[in-house]
Design brief:
The chain is α/β, with parallel strands linked by helices. It has nine helices and 15 strands. Helix 3 crosses helix 8. It comes from Streptomyces toxytricini.
């Protein structure tokens, strides 16, 4: 690492040291490392950049979709047709790897994107349950949260859309339940604990453990030593800045 990168806490590439947004993209890309030939279904800009970056680097067998009916390359060039019936086959058969958002998420990974407040009379209506339950009992799933706060990381979600570890086990769906990592603008989290509750797996450079604890509405498992999120390589930074997102839209989504 050169002096410029060391001062900024990240790898230097074309255009300077890695930004917080670029660490987040790489952390999302890692969700598809070793995924093989599956349909990547990222939801949102940062996860989409992550999936495309993974395809261009360490996961070349990933299938990318335009979200409707086409299979596309990282540059958007059409590679094939994905009819709806085939898409449903992939979903039901576990051949899809999803990264969703979360309006609320709890310590066991239960996710809410439907409403805030009491279900019978909610304070705010959101997207609705949509495909979250089927995603979480049929496919590997990760989450992306661009603003880590106690409003999102809550003790108990107001409504369960995506199924967490505790509910999957209680409902007998644990065999097919594959909940991976949660990436936020502060760090990366997993469920590598005895009770499958959320654990701080890595911190993004410039973030401290206490900052994460203060922004989390439940007692988070924190190891004695917390590593930093892996740095983007110079080639990953080049791809992000020159090929995938030359307009720098990623920087608008992540503070810092």
């Amino acid at each position: 690492m050169n002096a410029q990168a060391a001062a900024a806490g990240g790898t230097a590439g074309p255009g300077g040291a890695a930004s917080r947004a670029e660490y987040c993209v790489v952390a999302c890309a890692e969700e598809w490392r070793g995924a093989g030939e599956v349909l990547a279904s990222p939801m949102g800009l940062i996860p989409s950049l992550g999936a495309r970056l993974a395809r261009l680097t360490f996961s070349p067998d990933l299938l990318l979709t335009d979200g409707e009916a086409l299979l596309v390359g990282p540059d958007g060039e059409v590679e094939g047709w994905l009819p709806y019936r085939r898409h449903l086959d992939l979903v039901a058969g576990g051949r899809r790897h999803v990264m969703m958002g979360a309006s609320q998420i709890d310590r066991y990974g239960n996710q809410n994107i439907s409403c805030i407040g009491d279900w019978e009379r909610p304070d705010r209506q959101l997207l609705g349950v949509r495909g979250a339950p089927a995603n979480t009992v049929n496919n590997p799933v990760g989450y992306w949260v661009p603003r880590h706060s106690r409003r999102v990381f809550v003790e108990r979600v107001d409504m369960v859309c995506g199924v967490g570890h505790d509910r999957a086990a209680a409902g007998g769906a644990g065999r097919f339940h594959r909940l991976g990592r949660v990436v936020s603008d502060l760090g990366v989290f997993d469920f590598a604990t005895p009770d499958r509750s959320m654990r701080l797996a890595s911190l993004h450079p410039g973030v401290g453990v206490e900052e994460v604890r203060e922004a989390t509405g439940f007692a988070l498992a924190v190891p004695a030593e917390v590593p930093y999120t892996r740095e983007p390589t110079a080639e990953e930074l080049r791809l992000l800045r020159e090929v995938l997102d030359p307009a720098g839209l990623r920087e608008r989504e992540v503070r810092g």
